[in-house]
Amino acid sequence: MNAQISARIDQLRALACLWVFVFHYEHFIAHEYFLPIDTYNPLHILVYNGYAGVSLFFCLSGFLFAHYYCPKPTLALGAYYAKRLLRILPSFVVLIGIFYSFLNTEHRGLFKLLSSIFYPDLDIYPQAIGHLWSINRELQCYALFPFLWLLNRYLGVKALILLAVISLGTVLTWALLTRPIIPYFYGSFGLRFFEFVCGMVGAVLTTPNRLINKVLPVFVLIYFGLLVGHHLLSWQTPLSYSVLSIAWLCLNSVLCLIFIILFIYHTLPVPTLLSQALRKIGETSYSFYLYHFPVIGFFTHNRQYLSESAPVNFAMILGLSLGIAFISYRYIEKPAQNIKRQIFVYR
């Protein structure tokens, strides 16, 4: 992977995790969870609907895996799974241990805590570590990737497209028949698998194009317009089942993929200081995602530590989340990655 693409990917990771952070801050510190908000401010709407950052992560994961592995003639299964586990589990296990030992104020049993990771349990989310459901979905996609690699290798990208359509069609059929509240559709494996496979398709089919620089700002404006339009039509019942909200989540997945492609291959210069800051945050994005939610949860339940100034609260919680993330990256993630490189240097 060349340096430019690597830099763009780190910047995308930073944008995605920051988007998720401001979403959680909005809903658990600034307001109640998905309290309906009637606003025409596009920036406020962007923050309020920051759940889309998770779709950005899943599409980006599929894109990265396909970009790295699909050109290879072989895939060593043992090395692949070992590398994935070394990437995900160390920080993941440490977080669960810390939370269970020191932050489990409601004294939930370990089984109850772990169950929220395997399915978004609204009885426990957001009081504990319910945000880890998305890591479980990522692990499921990682586990299935060798099968996807085989499909692309021997049947071509059309097989991946067909599988993405089947996954989306299956979860849509389930949603239309059972009429779930939106969080259950949002956390479904079918939607996340669709995004992951779409990311793979995007990586396999995309080639750089000079028009991308012109298309990117236009696309961002179109996305803002669609997001604002959806919000104005659905803000009164944001969590209730509606065909419109389900259709939006599906469309949002595709729009996130398009944004990834446009962002990665654009050649517009990013200011040096901003680029370096985003890359640093991007490097620690996994730890940042893991730890920002417990930090927000702590202050949600201990509001006596918050200031009367909203900007001060935001800066304090963001700074604390980033600080813990950098420590986790330095002393947990990075050593695990070094072990991974030493063991699998030629694989």
Question: Could you describe the 3D structure shown?
Answer:
The chain has helices at 3-30, 42-48, 52-69, 77-103, 110-118, 133-155, 157-178, 182-186, 189-205, 212-234, 243-265, 272-283, 285-301, 310-343. It has 347 residues and is an all-alpha fold. It has one domain (3-343).
Task: Considering the chains and any ligands shown, give keywords for the structure.
mainly alpha; 347 residues
The fraction of residues in strands falls at: under 5%
Overall 3D form? globular
Helix/strand class: mainly alpha
The rounded distance between the terminal residues' Cα atoms is 15 Å
Low-confidence stretches: none
**Helix share, percent:** over 70%
Radius of gyration, in angstroms, nearest whole number: 20 Å
Count of strand segments: 0
| Average pLDDT, all residues | 90
Count of alpha/pi helices? 14
Q: Summarize the biggest pleated sheet.
A: none
Helices and strands, in order, run as HHHHHHHHHHHHHH
User: Any idea how many domains?
Assistant: 1
List the helices and strands and how they pair.
Layout: H1 3-30, H2 42-48, H3 52-69, H4 77-103, H5 110-118, H6 133-155, H7 157-178, H8 182-186, H9 189-205, H10 212-234, H11 243-265, H12 272-283, H13 285-301, H14 310-343
Helix pairs in contact: 1-3, 1-11, 1-12, 1-13, 3-6, 3-9, 3-11, 4-6, 4-13, 4-14, 6-7, 6-9, 7-9, 9-11, 10-11, 13-14
